[in-house]
């Protein structure tokens, strides 16, 4: 059975439930269940590897304790299941005691459930969804990596970018950008608006042949960093990285733009930055004051370009997806940000993408900018990606491909 079929079956069941209103709530509903199931699979591994392992999730609340249907008539369903989820499971996970000493891989359970909700009101339908999820075995390598396909399918079903210009970056784009930047396991690597973790998982895929020992794995875990402002993509990113063998993902649930850029020290900088910042959003004055006066743009994407310049280490390199407007606007703040970029960084390559790469979210034309902190810009190499023969533009059904 394909992942697409699994997702469609789940969504068709959820559409029958009066409590779930629209695609966004369907995703939220599916994601907390996916997280608990995925986390349970990781705990199985930790129990096998560590004699003294103790779960942070209370007895009775782990996925294996209540979600498995052994076909013996004992599985929770209907009002009993709803009552357990709403009055036992959610309160227990939202109120987990977490301190500075709590291992990060355990503390994330509380962080994930702080903003999660159970929207379903029909316990019988909820049981049906859980049973379908139990058909996927996340302890199996192929099924665990199929998680990518699950959330990509969900995200594509959303159809719109939302208020802040957020959208899924196609895997061919994330993989291409990572291959250009060639991140190494000893380098500090960041995505300051990481969404569901697409760039971070592409980085892990690129480095997989170099991760040979436990020390290598721990080094990558320390060095890979993400920040995501919105609760749902944050939850997806955490779950996604756990499935890619990062037990304690360095992903903060925060807004990268809320700290004054002048306060960043050397230890706050990164060797590699790769990202697709949200664009089309308007930032408030309380955010803009974190940047020098000349650079206080209202456009979110502009501020992220400025932020990267302050957080890129000497000799560091960056790849950023930006809308066409960034290149050609002469408005004051945009101009100042570009002047600083050209003066202090080497903007060596711009790849222009055609219309439809981000279908169905937006038709805005975009460019991939590659630069490094090795001195000022002397020469820029432009490349326009041509559409394949017979295409007028990329679409949801005819997407951009890696080749």
The overall pLDDT average reads 88
Helix-residue proportion:
40-55%
Low-confidence parts lasting 5 or more residues at pLDDT below 50? Answer: 159-165
Instruction: Return Rg in Å.
Output: 22 Å
Number of strands: 8
Tell me the major beta sheet: 8 strands, mixed
Would you identify the CATH H-level superfamily of the largest domain?
Answer: Vaccinia Virus protein VP39
Compressed to H and E, one letter per element, the order equals HHHHHHHHHEHHEHEEHHEHHEEE
Helix/sheet category: alpha/beta
Number of domains: 2
- Widest β-sheet, arrangement of strands: 3-2-1-4-5-7-6-8
> Which fold name fills CATH's third level, the topology of the largest domain?
Rossmann fold
Coarse shape: globular
User: How large a portion of the residues is in β-strands, by DSSP E?
Assistant: 5-15%
Q: So what's the CATH class of the largest domain?
A: Alpha Beta
Please give the count of helices: 16
Query: How far is the N terminus from the C terminus?
Result: 27 Å
CATH architecture of the largest domain: 3-Layer(aba) Sandwich
């Amino acid at each position: 059975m394909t992942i697409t079929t699994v997702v469609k079956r789940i969504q068709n069941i959820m559409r029958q439930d009066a409590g779930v209103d629209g695609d966004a709530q369907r995703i939220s509903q599916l994601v907390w269940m996916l997280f608990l199931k995925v986390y349970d699979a990781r705990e199985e591994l930790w129990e096998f590897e560590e004699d003294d392992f103790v779960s942070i999730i209370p007895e009775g609340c782990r996925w294996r304790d209540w979600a498995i249907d052994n076909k013996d008539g004992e599985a929770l369903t209907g009002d009993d299941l709803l009552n357990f989820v709403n009055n036992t499971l959610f309160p227990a996970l939202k109120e987990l005691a977490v301190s500075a000493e709590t291992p990060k891989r355990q503390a994330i359970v509380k962080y994930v459930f702080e903003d999660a909700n159970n929207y379903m009101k029909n316990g019988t339908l909820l049981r049906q969804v859980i049973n379908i999820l139990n058909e996927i075995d996340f302890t199996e390598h192929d099924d665990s990596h199929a998680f990518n396909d699950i959330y990509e399918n969900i995200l594509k079903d959303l159809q719109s970018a939302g208020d802040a210009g957020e959208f899924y970056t196609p895997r061919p784009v994330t993989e291409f950008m990572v291959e250009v930047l060639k991140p190494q396991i000893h380098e500090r690597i960041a995505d300051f608006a990481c969404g569901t973790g697409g760039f971070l998982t592409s980085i892990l895929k690129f480095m997989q042949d170099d991760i040979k020992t436990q020390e290598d794995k721990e080094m990558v875990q320390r060095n890979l960093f993400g920040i995501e402002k919105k609760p749902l993509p944050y939850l997806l990113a955490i779950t996604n990285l756990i499935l890619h063998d990062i037990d304690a993902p360095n992903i903060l649930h925060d807004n990268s733009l809320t700290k004054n850029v002048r306060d960043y020290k050397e230890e706050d900088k990164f060797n590699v930055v790769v990202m697709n910042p949200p664009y089309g959003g308007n930032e408030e004055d309380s955010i803009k004051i974190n940047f020098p006066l000349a650079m206080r743009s209202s456009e979110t994407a502009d501020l992220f370009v400025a932020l990267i310049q302050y957080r890129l280490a000497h000799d560091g390199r960056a790849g950023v997806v930006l809308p066409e407007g960034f290149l050609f606007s002469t408005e004051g703040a945009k101009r100042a940000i570009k002047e600083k970029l050209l003066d202090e960084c080497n903007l060596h390559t711009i790849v222009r993408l055609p219309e439809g790469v981000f279908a169905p979210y937006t038709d805005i034309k975009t460019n991939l900018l590659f630069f490094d902190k090795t001195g000022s810009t002397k020469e820029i190499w432009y490349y326009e990606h041509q559409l394949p023969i017979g295409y007028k533009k990329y679409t949801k059904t005819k997407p951009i491909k890696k080749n």
